[in-house]
Records
---
Amino acid sequence: MAPHRNLEQMFNPSHIAIIGASATSGKVGHTVLLNLITAGYKGKIYPVNPNVDTILGLPTVRKINDLPQNLDMAVLCIPSEHCLEALEQLAQISVKSVVIISAGFKEVGGLGWKLEEEVIKLAKKHNIAVLGPNCLGYINIDKGINVTFAEGQPKSGTIGFFSQSGALCIGIIDWSKNKNIGFSHFISVGNKAVIDESDILTFLANDPNTKVIVGYLESVENGSRFLRNAEAASAKKPVILLRAGSSNSGAKAASSHTGALAGRDAAYEAAFKQSGILRAREMEELFQLAQAFALQPIPLGPNIAVVTNSGGPGIVAADACEHYGLTMTSLKPETIHTLKEILPSYAAFFNPVDVLGDATPTRIVQTVKTVLADEMVHSLVVLLSPTAQTPMEQIARELVAVFEAIPKDKKKPIFCCFMGGTLVNEAKNILSSAGYPCYDFPEPAMRSAKALFDYKKRKEALPPVEVTYRRDKNKAESVIKKALREGSCELAEFQAQGLLEAYELPTPTTKLCRTSQEAMDIAHKIGFPVVMKIASPHILHKSDVGGVVLNIKNKEEAKEAFLTITSKTQRLRPDAHISGCLVQAMAPSGSREVIVGVKRDPQFGPLVLFGLGGIHVETLKDFSTRLAPLTLSDAHDMIREIKAYPILAGMRGEKPINFNALEDILLIMSQLALDFPLIEEAEFNPVLVNEKGALVADIRIILAHKES
C-alpha cells in the first residue's frame, strides 16, 4: 500500500521552487507564488525567473541549476514544451517532487501524449514524485501551502479532498466558503502521470489532520492497486468518492447477457462496495456526506428519532428513514412520560415527535434534550420550519448550547434540517459554524445518517473468508486450447461441457444427438420429459432461432422436436454449422431460473454478475455484481441484493431455494475466471435452483483472441 517514497516531501516540503514565477499579475506563475506567500508558508521559497531580480518581495533565482541540491519540491508554471527540459535540470539537482501545473500533455493527444510518456520515464528513472501534469496544484492548509492558481483559500477543516478535474476544484473552493466546509488538503491530480488516486488515498489515510477522505474520479489507472489501497484507507477512515462518466454505451457490442449488463460503471460500483468506499451520486451528496463524517460521531445503531414543529415534514422524514433502511425507533415509556409534561396534550408524543407550530424555543429545546437522552435513540434529526413563534436564530444558538453540553462519550449524530430560505439562513450558519450539519430538506439528512451507520457496520464486519474449490485445471485448459486450435473464440453449450465437468459443477443430464433416431433413444434413456436445444458453435442465443423445445413427453415428440429445431435453424441461419441437438433432463420441480455470469473489466479484472435468469435478464436489469475473487460474504450478499430476492426466498407457499448450492456456483464462476485470463465473458444461464440444489442448465464462454 506504500505510496511514492517522496510523497511526504511533496505535501510537506521545507523549500519550494516556482519555475516560471512571474511579476505580471494575472499570469499563472504570479498567482501561484502569491497564493503560496499569502497562505502563510514558513519554508524557503525560490521564485525562478531569468529576467527580473525580485518578485513579490522575494529574490529570484535565474536558472534551475542555481537552486540548492535535494530540493523538496518544484512547481512548473511554464509552457508544456519546456517542461521536459526543466524536469531534466531538476533531476540533476536531485529534486524530490514536482507539481506540473502546465497543460498540453496527454489530454491533447498526439505530441502531448508522447511528451507525457517522456515525463513519466524521466520521473521514474530519478524517483521524482510528479503531481499532474495539467492540474490545479494542491493546498495543505495546516502547513500554509497553496501552490494553485485558484483565487482564495478554503477554510481549515478535516476533509481531505482530491479531484481529477482542476476546474471542478476551483468551483468547489469558492462554493465551500459559503457552506462552512473546511479542508485539511485540497489536491488536483490532473493527468496522473506518476502520482495517482491510489497514492493520494494512502497519503490521506495516514494524514493526522484528515478525518474523512473525499474524491472526484473519472477513471482509475491501476484497478488492483486502487482496490488494495482503497480497502486499507477505508479501514482507517471514511472514504467517499464520486465517479463521473458512468454510462455503459460500450456494452452494446457485448456477446452475452452478462456482457450487455456489466458495463464499466458496474465494475466501479463493485470495486467501491468491496473496498469499503461510500459512493456519492452527485456533487451535493458528496459534500453532505463529507460534512456528516467530518463533524459527527459514528452512531451506535440504526435508530432514528425526529423532533419537528410540523406534521407534514415529519411524515416525509419518516418515509426517508424507511427508504434508507433505518429505523424510526420507539421511545422509552419514561421519555414519553416526560414529553407529556413538556408538550401540550394535543402534541404528538411518539416518534416523530411533533412539538406543534406554536412551539417556543424553550419547548423545542426541552424536547430535543429529552429525546436525545433516550437510550433507544442512536441519531437525532431536528426538523423545523419558521413560524411566528419560532425565532430561528435564537433556537439555533440554544440548540448549539445543548449539543455542546453533552459529554464527549455520550454524543450522538445530530442532523438539523431548517426548511426555508431567507428566514432560516442565519440560523443554519450558526449551526454549521458550530459543527452541526444543517440541511434544506429531510431526505439528505436521512441519507447522511444512513452513510454513518453503513460505515459502522463495515468497520464491525468479520474479516472476509475466501474459498478455493477443487477443480481439474488441466482438463479445463484442454477444452479451451481445443477451441482456440479450431479458431473458435466462442464456446457454445455442447463445446463447454468439459469445463462444467472440470469444475465439478452440477448439471442436468445432457447428451448430444446428431440424428432424429439418436434424439429418440437418448431422450428415452434420460427419461421424459426432456428439453431439446440446438447445438451449434455459431449460435449462442438459441431462443433467437427457435432452437429450444421444452417438455418433450415421448419418443415421437422427441423426433419431431429434433427435425423442427434443425430445419428452422438451417432456414434462419444458413451460415451456421449445426452439430445436432442437446437432449437435457427437464428442470426439477419448484426450480427458479437465475443467471451467473462474468465479464472481464480492463481495469479491475473479472466482474461476476448475478440475477434472475432466462430471456428477460436484460429487460429487467435486476442484478448484482462483485469483483473476483468472491468471498463467502460476497456470494451471500449478491443473492440477497436483487429486487427479486423474495422469489428465491419463497413466496405463497413455495419453499426457499438451496442458497448454499447457489453460493457455490457463484464462487466457482469466480474461480473459473481467475484461473483463465483468456475468458473474456462466461455465463451460466439458466441455473436451475430449488430447495434441494442448483443445476447449471446452459453455459457459454467467450474467449479473448490470443493476440489480446
---
Amino acid sequence: MAVRKNPIINTATTLGKLVGFLAVSVLCGVLVAGLMVPAVALTGSAASTSIDAFDKLPGELTSADAAVATKILASDGSLIANLYTQNRQPVGFDQMSPFIKNAVVAIEDSRFYEHGGVDATGIMRALVSTVQGGRQGASTITQQYVNNKIIQGLEAQNKGDLAKIGAAKTVADKLREMKLAIALEKQQSKDQILAGYLNIVNFANGAYGIQAAAQRYFSVDASKLTLVQAATLAGVVNSPSFYDPIAHPDNAKDRRNDVLDKMLAQKMINKKDHDAAVAAPVTLKPKVQPQGCATAAVAPFFCEYVKNLILGDATFGKTVDDRAQALYQGGLTIKTTLDPKAQKIAQDQQNNTTGPNDNRGSAMVSIEPGTGKVLTMAQNFKMSAVAAVGQTSYNFSVGKFDADHNPLGGLGTMGVGSTMKPFTFASWLDDGRSMNTVLNGAKRVYGTDTVWRNSCGTTTGYFDSSLPGSDDLQNDDPNHYYSMSVLNGLVGSINTITFASASQLDFCKIKQMTTEAGIIDGVTGKPLTFDTASKLLGSDSIDPLTMANAFATFANKGVYCKPIAINSITDSQGKQLQVPQSECKQTMKPEVAAGVMYALQRVLSDKARGSGALIQPNVNQDSYNLGAKTGTTNFGVDTWVVGTTSGLATASWFGSPTGEIDKPFHNQNVTINGRPYAQIDGANIAGTAFSNFMNEVAPSYKHEDFPQPPSSMLEEPYVAPPVTQTPNRNNPTSSSKATPPATNGNANTKGNNGNGDSKKKP
C-alpha cells in the first residue's frame, strides 16, 4: 500500500520549498552565521577557532594549476608551435583591461569585493527565488574559481569524468565548495582571485582564460579589450556554448547588453558609454591559435623531434603520461637550438628538389660540431597523418628509435652508400698506416674461403661470379680496376680499394670506429654489426641526423658530441627546468680525425679523381675548409652528400620516401622536377641542395682550417709493381648494378653497391 504524501508539506508546494529552505539554512548555519563574511569581521575565540580550520588550503587548490599551452621556440625566440589541450595563456592582473575586470564582477558577482568568499545575501536571494519557483545562481567568483581549480585537478589526474557541475552537485558538494572558497580568501587577495578566475575560465571555442579569449575573438591582447569586447566576453562564461559569439552572435549580443546594464546600474560606466556600447554590433576578428607540430610556422618535423625527445626522457616525468601532461598542460616555454634563418634556407632547398607530383623524398639536417646543437631539419614532404604524394607522417631526418629505444617518428630506412667508406679509411689510419699506401684495386674476387678478421664477432660474405647467384666485386665504372693509394681510393670512391684495405683490418675496429662516431642503425637504434662484408659499402640503414653528427665528430678533432635540440625550458611560473646537456668526449684520435678531413677535402677539390668534384660547394674555394663524401645505393634509390666545415655539418639525402627499393624508386632514366636524368647519384639533387645551403650558411658559423694530419700518415711507402686489372668473368664491361643475393652474405635489402663516383654528369 502506497504511503500517502501530506499535501500540506509536499516539497512541490510553496510551504514544502520553505521547509527545504529552512533545512538547508540549518545545514549552512555556521557558514551563514560567521564564515561567509570577511575574516576581519569575525571576533571572539569561537570565530577564530572556526577560521583557523581553513588556514591551510587542500592540495587540490595549491597544486592543481590550470592547463596552460606550451610554446616551442627557435633559438632566437621566434615561435615554432603551440602545444595544448586547452588554449590558455595566463597574464597578470595588470595585463587585463579594466573593462573585463568590471564586466565580470558586474554580471557574475556584484558583491565580490564585499563578501569573504561566500555571499550570504546571494544565497538567501537564491533560496527565496527557488521557493518562488524560479532559479538564480548564488556562486561567487571565488566559488567559481575554486570549482574550476577542482576540475583542473581532476583533469590533471585523467579523472575529468568525476568533475561535477551545475545540478550534478549535492548539498555536500556545495558546502565543501563554500569552505574552500573561504579558505582561499584567507590566502589570496581579491585581485589575485579575480586574476586567477579570469585566467582559468572557459570562453568557448577552445579559448581558456582572458588572454586566449581576447586573441581568439578579437585578435588583441587582454590589456587592449574595449568596453564592448569586454562585455561580450564577460557574458560568455555563464554558458559558453549558448553565448558563443561565433556560433550564436544574437545570444551573445543579448547577454552582452545584460552585462552593460549591470555595469551601468553599479556605476561602473556612464549612460553615454552604456548606450553607445548597447547600440554597437557584435564585431569579431577571429584568430585561430594553431595547435600541434603539423601547424608549426617553421620546421614541423623538428618540432615533432623535440616533442618526441621530451616524451622519451625521464628528466621530464616518470611516465610517458606524466611527460605528456607536462608538455600539453604545463605551460612550458621550450627554447630550441633551431636556427630559423638557416632553417628557411634548408627548407627552400628541399622545396626545390622535386615537383608536386614527383614521388621522391629529400631531407637535409645540420648540426654544430663541438656543441651537438641541431640547427636545421627540413624535408620536402609536408607533415600529414595521411600518406600521399608529397605528404607523410615520417620524419626523414631521424631514425625510428634512439639509442634508448625511444620512438622518434623517423623513417630510418635509407642505405647510406659510400658515405660509410670514411670509417674504413679512419680505421686504416687508426691502425698506424699511411693513407698513401698503394693497394691492389684490381682484386675483385673474394671467394668462399675468404676469412674476414673480426675480433668481436663474425663477418661473412663473398664476391665470386663463378658461384651461382654471386658476382665479382664492382666499382661504379669499368675504368678504375688498378692499383692506387688508399687516399685516392676514398677520394674516387673505389669499392675495390675499400675492400683491399678492409681485408687487412679487424672488422671489429671498423665497427668500433662507427660506434665512436655515434652511428646506430636507423631502424633498430642499435650499433652496427658489420656481420657481412658488404656493409663496408653502406648497406646499413642510417638516418641523416646520425650521419651529419658522425661527420661532425671528424670535424671536431675526434670529439663526439651527443645531439641536443633544446637550449632551455621554463615552466609557467618562469622557473628554469633541467634540460639534457650535450655529452662530448674524445672517441677517436685527433690525428685520425685530421687524416679523414684531409681526405674528405680532396673528395671535393680533386678535379681528376674526386667523387664530389662536380658539387662545387665553395663559390670561393679559399673561403673555408670543407670536406664531404657522396653516396649512392644500387639504382640510385638513395643518394647522399654528407659534409662538414669546422662549425657546420650537414647531411643531404634524396631517395625513396617509403624505404622501398623497388623499381618505382630506381633513379635511372627519370625526370625529376622537369629535368631528365640518365642516372642520379649523390652529386646531383642531394649535392645541389647541399652546395647551395653550405654556400649561404657555412660562412655564418665557425670555419677554421682543419689541422694537418701527421707526416707519418702522408708518407709514401714502397709501391709494388702495377697489378694487371682482373676483368669481370661474366661481363667485362658491366657497371655496378648487379647485386649478389642476400643468401650469400654480400647483399642486403637495399641492394647497395656503394656508388658515389659523381664524375660523370647525368
